[in-house]
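wait is this the right file?? whatever heres the structure
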């Protein structure tokens, strides 16, 4: 593991990257103890506080764990898909908000990924996945359900569809699409949407997965994509009209 002292990059960031690269390459394996702070300081020819900051960076990424006592130290941690997904959702949310990704782009990406997942979900979904989807459809139909709660239910419904594919890598990849993009889309479209239309499409999707009919699931998702894009256009037009009215 090496760093470049002449680089303008922060030394602690370089050390963290060097250790992370060693973990990724397999040079450092899960549960292996890292060298001590003093040993790492000697190896990288930096101060112990710089090493300590690098280890904090790795701990924040859930790549290492610390253990106290005579046999303690810093150890390579096995990163779970749930932990990785949580970070992925946060990063996706920030990426969308900071880069002003337009509604059509977010919608296109999210549904393209979900439609790619649907055939596996039609084949592998369990009764629990179907039960979750049915429960969320029932919840969405409740009178008086707030827009915020409807959005939460919408996310839970689509997450069950994704998880029904029984592929943790897909679930991780789609976590950002469903749990970051879906709230964004709901935030824009909630004033225009017809809940009955959405509930009807959700019901068709659940029925298709129940029947293991991937083609029917894809058709319903395609219609949901088109409906969502239409809602986005209507919402943007309504906002533009309201702004023009206020400026008169």
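ok assuming it is, sequence goes like this
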């Amino acid at each position: 593991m090496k760093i470049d002292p002449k680089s303008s990059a922060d030394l602690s960031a370089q050390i963290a990257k060097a250790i992370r690269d060693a973990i990724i390459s397999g040079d450092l394996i899960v549960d292996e103890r890292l060298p001590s702070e003093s040993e790492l300081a000697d190896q990288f020819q930096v101060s112990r506080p710089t090493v300590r900051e690098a280890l904090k960076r790795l701990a924040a990424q859930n790549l290492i764990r610390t253990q106290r006592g005579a046999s303690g130290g810093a150890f390579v941690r096995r990163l779970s898909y749930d932990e990785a997904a949580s970070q992925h959702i946060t990063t996706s949310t920030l990426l969308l908000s900071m880069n002003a990704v337009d509604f059509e782009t977010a919608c296109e990406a999210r549904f393209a990924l979900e439609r790619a997942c649907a055939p596996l979900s039609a084949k592998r979904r369990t009764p629990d996945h179907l039960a979750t989807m049915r429960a969320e459809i029932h919840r969405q139909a409740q009178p008086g359900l707030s827009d915020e709660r409807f959005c939460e239910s919408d996310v839970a419904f689509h997450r069950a569809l994704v998880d029904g594919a029984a592929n943790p890598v897909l679930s991780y990849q789609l976590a950002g699409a469903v749990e970051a993009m879906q709230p964004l889309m709901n935030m824009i479209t909630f004033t225009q949407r017809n809940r009955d239309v959405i509930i009807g499409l959700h019901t068709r999707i659940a029925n298709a997965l129940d029947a293991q009919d991937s083609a029917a699931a894809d058709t319903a998702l395609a219609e949901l994509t088109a409906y969502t894009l239409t809602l986005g256009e209507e919402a943007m037009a309504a906002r533009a009209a309201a702004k023009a009215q206020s400026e008169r």
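The chain is about 70% helix and 5% strand. so i think its the right one actually
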